[in-house]
Design goal:
There is one protein chain. The chain is an alpha+beta fold. The strands form three sheets. It has a five-stranded antiparallel β-sheet with strand order 2-1-5-4-3, sandwiched between helices. The chain has a four-stranded mixed β-sheet with strand order 7-9-10-11, covered by helices on one side. Helix 5 runs antiparallel to helix 6 and helix 6 packs parallel to helix 7. The radius of gyration is 33 Å and the shape is elongated. The chain starts with 6 loop residues before the first strand and ends in a 10-residue tail after the last strand.
Length: about 300
């Protein structure tokens, strides 16, 4: 049970200098066969940055009137394998009749897995905090840029923009922040028009998407989603989707040359209007954007 728990035992005679380690403690310190355990080998195995922690723990244990408990957590670098491990040391300092410390007995527990989990959680918390602040900043900007003639219209505009941001975040989370598929972003904005709606007299979808698989980089996905939302909103209010028989076409294709490769998106204007002025185009700089999404 002791071996399974990763628990090592030590016994250090402070008078004679004799040190005894069990097999588990020797393994934690990476001490090879034939090398005798000693105070020197103990100190050599400590991470240089954590040696002050040992001195503080020792001073606390030897404090007059204290309980003699030695407690510390520090890193150990294996002598043979060079592996960095975290250990939690708990010991009891024994004193002679004159109050001098004469013996230290205790255990060392390998807590490397726990420490690594704590570090991952701390990193995750910092990342979540960073992304939350970024999201709030974007929402704040969306609020400042929103204008409307009535409170009800302002609420509708703000809700639409915040919903677009939320959809972008959901898509990125599903792909573990590795980017967002362009088609998925467009489907989120045009979902009601990508299917037939007999109630509105539309026997066929009023919007069509055409283009190859494209992954938009994580940094570009959110602002692109906002731009697509604004274009879709304008199409509903003023463009093709504002007319009963209007149709909207969205297409994209890789484009090379000029200032650099980009993806071009185009949407149709009002029904029957085939002039270039009736279309909107976006150039999306590639940020890992030209790769097909993973299967």
């Amino acid at each position: 049970a002791q071996e399974a728990a990763g628990l090592g035992i030590f016994d250090h005679d402070l008078v004679t200098g004799q040190t005894t380690w069990d097999a588990r403690l020797r393994a934690i310190w990476g001490l090879p066969e034939g090398v005798e355990a000693s105070r020197r080998t103990f100190l050599q195995g400590l991470h240089p940055g954590d040696r002050p922690l040992r001195r503080t723990a020792a001073a606390r244990a030897m404090r007059p009137g204290g309980d003699g408990r030695y407690r510390a957590e520090y890193r150990v670098i294996g002598r043979t394998d060079g592996v960095e491990r975290w250990v939690s040391v708990n010991g009891s300092l024994r004193f002679d009749e004159a109050g001098r410390p004469v013996r230290l007995v205790g255990t060392a527990l390998d807590i490397t897995a726990r420490k690594r989990a704590e570090q991952r959680n701390e990193l995750l918390m910092r990342e979540v905090d960073h992304r939350a602040k970024n999201a709030l900043a974007v929402v704040q900007a969306a609020l400042r840029l929103s204008r409307a003639e009535t409170p009800a219209e302002l609420v509708r505009i703000v809700e639409g923009r915040v919903s677009a941001l939320a959809r972008a975040q959901t898509v990125l989370a599903q792909r573990r922040r590795e980017g967002a598929e362009l088609r998925v972003l467009l489907e989120g904005e045009l979902a009601p028009f990508l299917v037939a709606d007999d109630r509105r007299g539309s026997a066929a979808p009023r919007a069509a998407l055409r283009g190859p698989p494209v992954t938009i980089g994580a940094r570009a996905a959110q602002p692109l989603c906002m731009a697509l939302h604004e274009l879709a909103t304008n199409a509903v209010k003023y463009g093709a989707l504002s007319q009963p028989g209007g149709r909207l076409s969205v297409s994209w294709a890789p484009r090379h040359g000029g200032a650099g490769p980009a993806h071009r998106l185009a949407r149709g204007g009002r029904p029957g209007d085939r002039r270039a002025a009736g279309a909107a185009r976006l150039r999306v700089p590639r940020d890992r954007a030209d790769r097909p999404p993973p299967a």
